[in-house]
Amino acid sequence: MLHYIYEVTFNLFITVTAITLFFALCKTLLGKTGFYIQLGGVLAGLVAASYRAVRHAFMSTFDVEINLYTFYVGFIAMAFMLIALTVFCRKRAPVWGKTVIACLSAAVSADLLFYKAWKVIWAPAEFETAGEGIISADFMLRLAGWALTLILFTVYIRFLYRCLMKLSTDAALWTGANGDPIRDDSHLILGCTGGLALVTVIINFGGQILRAWRQKSSLRVTDPETGRRVQTVLYKFRPGWFTVPEAGSAYDSWERDFAMNVGNNARQFMLLIGIIVLIPLAVLFIKSLLKRGRYSNPAQHRRLKANRRHNRRWVGVVAVCMAIVLFNLTTVYALDNKKEAEPEPESYQISADGSQVLIPIEQVNDYNLHTFSIKTKNSVEVRWLVVRKPGSGAYGVGLNACDVCGPAGYIQRGDTVVCVKCDVVMNTNTIGLPGGCNPVPLAFKVDEGSIVIQMDDLIAAESRFKNR
């Protein structure tokens, strides 16, 4: 449950905050036309994200390739939108300039949804990984965490949009103490807020692109059937003119630190987006504390006071939602990533010619999880596990890694085997079978009282554990 609360928050906060800002900005600049242009971009992004989720579920697409193209498109669209905001984000700007802003915001929204929302759409496909069905407690808890966080964001989006639109439509906010109109700066405030949010995401996307370009090792996709590495990934999308600066130079150090800091500090960018969106909220709250607006009778006065009160309450709702988001990104993350003690690797025998690993049957006959490891000549620790399946004499043997969560590994919790990263409970009878969060199957045979595993099969799995 905690895992999906954090995952939905992590994947959606920046996206939905930026998109809500763009909705308010487009509606303020172009009215309903701007709103519908932005809505078209959001719908296109949701369709694309849904397609990506389905493709990932059935085809196990390699995300580095897709994400890098997404960074390219998003970076360019956001850069042009930032320029357009600087030039056309004012009341008297030409309609075509405002339309350009709306079209670019729609493109950026679609790109952000394609980049992040697919993971949220795909998440329910993981709930049944344990094979327990939709009536199991584990499934219901995961579904509850996923759904409750989506409800949180629904409330957050609704009231954030209300606050942003109120800032630009409530004339009483833009009157002086004597009730006379003063300059309406709502366009400027929304434009600056959207611009700062764009700069934040541009830095993030730029760092991700640079990080991918700097990769010095050739990453490859592994064919699950043959075990062969069949496709080089990063160099294919790296421009020919880009070369990594000379090692040890000042620029190389700066570039490396920038790329790594951007890639490893995603939550700090979320915090920055949260601070940025507080700008219009603070303006609305402060102006709603002031007694502004003209009235000619007590009823109109009461209405003005009620409007100001509603404004403050809406800001309060958004603030509470943001506090919950902060809690999810800190406390829930810490609880979800609290490490449980992994079992210590056990001893085993190696055949005289060194070609086989031999594990005595009596060593693994107690239905508990048993883990083993071997260090290759490249100093990579390859890990695998063995468990006897309940109610039978069969054994589940697999690498201590999976295709979904990588080399995170597994632990035993009570009578169950659990993925360390996503907390999915394994159906012990499916260990040794491919698919989902199951351990990657490892070929073995039972011979003369021992489980026999070929040393070559373990060495071939070395690439899965290089970055553990």
Describe the overall structure:
By secondary structure, this protein is α+β, with helices and mostly antiparallel strands. The protein folds into two domains: 2-336, no CATH class; 349-465, Rieske Iron-sulfur Protein. 55% of the residues lie in helices and 11% in strands. The chain contains ten helices and twelve strands. The strands form four sheets. A four-stranded antiparallel beta sheet has the order 3-4-12-11. Helix 1 (2-30) packs antiparallel against helix 4. It is elongated and about 100 Å long. The two termini are 25 Å apart. 34% of the residues are buried. Mean pLDDT is 82; it is low at 216-222 and 229-235.
Keywords summarizing the entry:
four-stranded antiparallel sheet, 10 helices, 12 strands, 11% strand, alpha+beta, elongated, 55% helix, Rieske Iron-sulfur Protein, 468 residues, three-stranded antiparallel sheet
